[in-house]
Amino acid sequence: MSAANQPQLTVVADADALAQAAARRLITCVQHKDRAAVCLTGGSSPLKLYHLLAQEPLRSEVPWDRVHWFMGDDRFVPQNDPLSNMGAARRAFLDSVPAPRQNVHPIPTGAKNPQEAAHRYEDELKKFYGADRLDSARPLFDLVLMGLGPDGHTASLFPNSPALDERQRWALGIPKAGWEPFVPRVTLTFAALASTHEMLFLVDSADKRQILARVLDGEDLPAHRAYAQGDLVWLIIRAAAPER
Ligand code: 6PG
Known about the structure:
Largest sheet: 6 strands, parallel
Radius of gyration: 16 Å
Bound molecules: 6-phosphogluconic acid
Helix content: 25-40%
Low-confidence stretches: none
Order of helices and strands: EHEHEEHHEEEHEHHE
Distance between the termini: 28 Å
Shape: globular
């Protein structure tokens, strides 16, 4: 596994096919692991996938007792808030599947402020990982799910944010969001997100075509800066795929 692998583009027919393909990849990433770690994303793109995981036949293929669920970023709101990414993941699947309570690791948005929440989440990730420094030969995650914002942001890493250049920290508080919802955020950094066997971008709407083309053409947008120790895969619906 070398750093910064070339992105693999996989084009599928539509959003349903994308959710099926993503679910299949997720199961492949976790099913033979004694302990697996999946980093979830927020926004609307993963919701079909989440719903599929809660239903048969895929539900029975997930080794729920051996998978841990983390969040790549979240809005600094309580989990019962409609804007909460972990809240949305719980409603979509985590609360209706046999995932042990201690296997679900929300970002502690009940903290005093986003910075404190980020420090606490970083400590929790290091405890789970069993070390304070990431080792490229031993990725933290088995799968990291990522979305693509209309401005090229990913997780809560927004264009022109100093967070883009963070090299040491695993998580950061983002007091000012660069895209709606304009609420403070907590996000994992590129270094923590990259510590994965597979990073999987989900692009499930045609209105992402232009921004996706800019990212794939190498424009210095956050989603272009994302990298992975393992495989970097873009799962794209045909209507959003760049003309080549
Ligand atoms: C968030 C997300 C964010 C999301 C993109 C794409 O908290 O908002 O993590 O990075 O992935 O904005 O959002 P959609 O999937 O809704 O287009």
